Amino acid sequence: MLSMPLETIKEKITAQKGLSADEIDKLIKKKLDSLSGLISQEGAAHIVANELGVKLVDISGSVTIKELVAGLRNVEFAGKIIRKYEVREFSTEKSTGKVGSCLVGDNSGLIRLVFWNEQIEKLDRAKEGDVVRVKGAFVRDNSGRLEVHINTMTSFILNPPDLDPSSFTSQAPKEEGEFTRKKISDLQDQDVNIELLGYVFEVFSPRFFEVCPQCNARMRPTDAGLACSTHGVVEPKYNFVLNLYFDDGSDTIRLVCWREQAKDLLGLTDEAILAFKDDLAAFSEVKQSLLGEMIKISGRAQMNSLFGHLEFIVSSVSREVKADEEIKEAQEEFVEASNKVASAEVPKEKTEPAASRVDATASKDVSGSETAIDFSDIEF
Questions:
Q1: Per-residue pLDDT averaged across 320-336, rounded?
Q2: Which of the residues 58, 87, 244, 336 could staple to 100 if both were Cys, CB 3.0 to 4.6 A apart?
Q3: CB-count exposure of residue 326 (10 Å: 0-12, 13-18, 19+)
């Protein structure tokens, strides 16, 4: 099934039918009301688009990366290889194999290409900076992030003569470990490599779901039983996701912690967390230990199209936070920001005599005439 964000559907309706945002919202609301709220806004928008004759996806030829949506098959697109990652080996109870990936970008965005087992030969021939045309691939959603999976039917054409590397302008994202500290109130959709510092104030029980033991793809019910779209009917294993709410003094946001991040946050093994699947009541003690705790997290912000609000997908988490150092750093940032504001307010043509200048960085009353900066009423 195709999965397309609500805002993308609205953009396509506007582009093809010339309707305003208000007109589209009224049509979606009317459709929701007529169906007694039994579908999501996204589902209602799909129906509205179909009734208006809007073509949401055109896969008759090459598309841009921005136009890719989960569930598309046999897609064709082109881009430049921005980053190539190491091939990793994996082992399960039933099989072993290898998986590799690279990051490809065009002028509209970035996407990860995933290669399994024998398909890694295609990746081995590529290097960063090469341009590539991909034909016949499948688009998957992996924990809220799109991936293109390369299979035996996929053409992976390196450096075709009609593609100019200089025509692709996408830049590599920041390296892992390079994060920008932000407040929740300053977050925007698709902000990446962001660091947040705050407190946990609500924790939900983990949710468990079936995945393929060979490729970790989400399994779906079929007439023959639970099946993977790649490996068919197999005995599933279980994965999990943990949701919690987080407050940094500027606003609150829902955090989404997938398996590895949930393990780091809870300090528990796979086996210990999976044990809660049959005894959720036992999770209460773990939940209580997290409430009110200061944590530092990094990851990306994305809009939840179903509920229409931002959420934060966690990539790393630390409970080893030195509160005193973090508060001191926040105080220093506040002083620096205050100085910039103060200096910006003084007209350049008017310069005070040196003897009468006030040192804006003073944190205590030295001369008796300067005003100390008091942090006692400031929340960090």
A1: 65
A2: 87
A3: middle
SS3 assignment, position 283: helix
Q: pLDDT digits over 214-234, tens only?
A: 877 788 888 888 888 778 888
3-state SS assignment for residue 142: strand
Helix, strand or coil, per DSSP, at residue 280: helix
Closest CA to 17 of 45, 37, 41: 45
- Once rounded to an integer, what is the mean pLDDT over residues 270-290? 92
CA 249 from chain center: how many Å? 22
Listed range (46-55, 97-106, 123-132) with the worst mean pLDDT: 46-55
Distance in Å from the first CA to the final CA of the chain: 44
The two domains 59-172 and 180-321 share their CATH topology (first three levels equal): yes
- Contacts of 367 by beta carbon, 8 Å cutoff, 6+ apart: none
Please spell the DSSP secondary structure of 212-275, one letter per residue: -TTT-PBPEEETTEEEETTTEE---EEEEEEEEEEE-SS-EEEEEEEHHHHHHHHT--HHHHHG
Spell out the domain ranges in the chain: 1-56, 59-172, 180-321
Other C-beta atoms within 10 Å of 139: how many? 19
Which amino acid type is present at position 308?
Answer: G
Between strands 220-222 and 309-318, the pairing is unpaired
- H/E stretch holding 288: helix 284-290
Dump pLDDT digits (tens) for 112-161.
999 998 999 999 999 989 999 999 898 888 766 789 999 888 999 999 99
Task: Give dist(CA 120, CA 233) in Å, integer.
Answer: 24
CATH match of 180-321 with 2.10.50.10 = no
Q: Could you say which DSSP state residue 128 is in?
A: T
Helix (H) or strand (E) holding 11: helix 6-17
Which residues is 115 bridged to in the sheet?
100, 150
Q: What is the CATH number of domain 59-172?
A: 2.40.50.140
pTM of the model: 0.52
Which two tokens mark 269? 């093994």
Supply 347's token pair. 């007209």
Rounded alpha-carbon distances, angstroms, from residue 102 to 105, 114, 149, 150, 224: 10, 7, 11, 11, 34
Q: What value does the mean pLDDT take over residues 164-170?
A: 80
